[in-house]
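User: Here's a structure from my thesis project, written as structure tokens. My advisor, Dr. K., wants to see whether a designed sequence matches the one we expressed. Can you design one independently, without my sequence as a hint?
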């Protein structure tokens, strides 16, 4: 539901440059931009930017580490309160992907004061705060700027046991790959912007993006899993390639087993496209082999996700317990010794 001013609907997504995704800088572009920036060398920095993991991890003491991340983007839905919830869930996900628990959050806001009323900002922040509280954390403040395009997100600090982290560098050959949310947020959100999404599919999209990854993360720790990443703007293939590179393995995914939000493949077949998927394609082309996969499955695996699920590498002995703890989770592939490609989609 879009909010209204003077009888006219306010469409928050009207200025979004990349409908259906968080409009991340492409992974290849990011790597190039940072190539000449010296990495931090501090023994307390357990996880830095080198492995393209989901958050940084800093050692405080032997049994305590801080998990830090930041994420913000332009609206992906029109309802301000829902946008705040989704943006917050997306940012909190990075902490869960590392096996952490969120503690505090700071809001980041770019707001077009000349084109949107302030009650829109009130609703966005309220949605974000409610989602932070649902995570058991506290919104302690933030920073705002005047911007031509609305943006919202969070900087989140969490805590984790440094002896029980989840990282993208801990996958081992023989592990089974579990995806905890369906794919297709980019395709469905783009269709929604074009008024090509029915109410039932819109509800499925919003419910998925608002859902926290807390259960999936805690289940991983409880079952002794060590490797996970959240699937967001780089798509399933992009994030799987990060696991493969950091762990020194090949990730094999089964395209027909990839779960989708209702209608995602159908929308792609009907011509829905996102700019984020095009950037993901350029990044993963030299890293992945999808010669045996259908075009629709490739499109789903490239689709940029907003507040997607976790991709978890689960040892076979723990698979049954993990699946029982995480409703809706699906086995989508396996980890193999390093081959010619980092990722194979079949």
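Assistant: Designed independently from the structure alone:
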């Amino acid at each position: 539901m879009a909010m209204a001013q003077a009888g006219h609907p306010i469409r928050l997504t009207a200025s979004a440059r990349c409908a259906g995704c968080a409009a991340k800088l492409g992974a290849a572009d990011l790597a190039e931009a940072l190539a000449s920036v010296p990495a931090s060398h501090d023994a307390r920095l357990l996880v830095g930017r080198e492995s393209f993991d989901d958050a940084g991890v800093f050692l405080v003491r032997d049994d305590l580490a801080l998990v830090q991340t930041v994420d913000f983007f332009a609206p992906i839905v029109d309802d301000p309160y829902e946008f705040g919830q989704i943006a917050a869930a997306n940012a909190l996900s990075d902490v869960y992907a590392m096996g952490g628990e969120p503690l505090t959050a700071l809001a980041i806001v770019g707001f077009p004061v000349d084109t949107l009323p302030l009650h829109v900002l009130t609703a966005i922040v309220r949605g974000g705060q409610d989602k932070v509280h649902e995570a058991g954390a506290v919104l302690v403040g933030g920073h705002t700027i005047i911007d031509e395009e609305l943006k919202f997100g969070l900087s989140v600090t969490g805590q984790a046991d440094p002896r029980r982290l989840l990282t993208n560098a801990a996958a081992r050959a023989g592990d089974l790959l579990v995806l905890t949310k369906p794919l297709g947020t980019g395709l469905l959100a783009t269709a929604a912007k074009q008024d090509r999404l029915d109410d039932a599919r819109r509800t499925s999209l919003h419910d998925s993006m608002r859902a926290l990854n807390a259960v999936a993360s805690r289940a991983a720790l409880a079952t002794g899993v060590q490797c996970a990443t959240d699937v967001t703007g780089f798509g399933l293939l992009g994030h799987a390639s990060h696991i493969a590179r950091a762990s020194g393995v090949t990730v094999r995914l089964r395209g027909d087993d990839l779960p989708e939000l209702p209608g995602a493949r159908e929308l792609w077949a009907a011509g829905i496209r996102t700019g984020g998927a095009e950037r993901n394609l350029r990044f993963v082309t030299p890293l992945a082999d999808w010669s045996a996969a259908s075009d629709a499955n490739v499109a789903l695996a490239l689709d940029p996700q907003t507040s997607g699920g976790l991709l978890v590498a689960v040892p076979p002995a723990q698979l049954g317990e993990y699946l029982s703890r995480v409703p809706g989770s699906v086995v989508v592939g396996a980890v193999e010794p390093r081959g010619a490609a980092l990722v194979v989609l079949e």
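When you compare it with your expressed construct, this may help: Residues 4-160 form a domain with the 60s Ribosomal Protein L30; Chain: A; fold (CATH 3.30.1330.10).
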